[in-house]
Amino acid sequence: MTDYLKLAAEVGEITRLAGAAIMEVYATEDFGVEHKADDSPLTRADKAANDVIVAGLEALDFQAPIISEEGKEMTYATRSQFTRFWLVDPLDGTKEFIKRNGDFTVNIALVESGKPILGAVYVPVTNELFYSAPGLGAWEVKEAGGKPSRIFAAAFTLQDVNLRIVASRSHLNQETQNFIDKFDRPELVQRGSSLKIMELAKGTAHVYPRLAPTMEWDTGAAHAILLEAGGKLVDDGTGKELRYNKESLLNPHFIAYGNVREELLAC
Q: Which end of the chain has a smaller Cβ tally under 10 Å, C or N?
């Protein structure tokens, strides 16, 4: 029987190793920036982190296929046969990495039957690690070798005053602003990468609307952690939890919540 908390900690250590590879590139002058077909940036750090993660996951006793943003493209016919798999974003927040603002992360999720059940998110610049295991909570380790501590999403209602609403540093569009304007004197929190969802998971923010494109690997690890912290991440159109390993790996627009104490109909 799998010890998922032990596995989550092991995966967390893999994210640390990937983070170290990222920081080696971060310390240089040349990031080797390229652009993919969708015009999104790719750096030497993305590739280096991906190599570390793939090697680390393949060395685990627990084995599952790997779907990575920087891995080989896989057909849906192949992916649809997976009952569980690793979902990897080796460097989430490449634009933030290039800007050198620190808001980038390493992300690994274990997805089972369309749901992220285990996640690890590492922040290379601050050395913070977050991870979760199914039914065993969400955890934060503030420094290498530190003791893990449980984290919990903040409890609130949508009518509360001064809710902290998280927004992307790079994607604050008019639709998002309209959503934010529904709240009573909200406080805007701007973060990059999966750190936006981590703000909810550790109880320092309440709502994160993402009304712009993302991919499954952008959200999987943080979604798993948020669920174990008591939050939710739902399709903006249906109100249901995001599902993974769809025919298209593009996410629908979504809203992430901390421990909201009412139905979502108010927004």
A: N
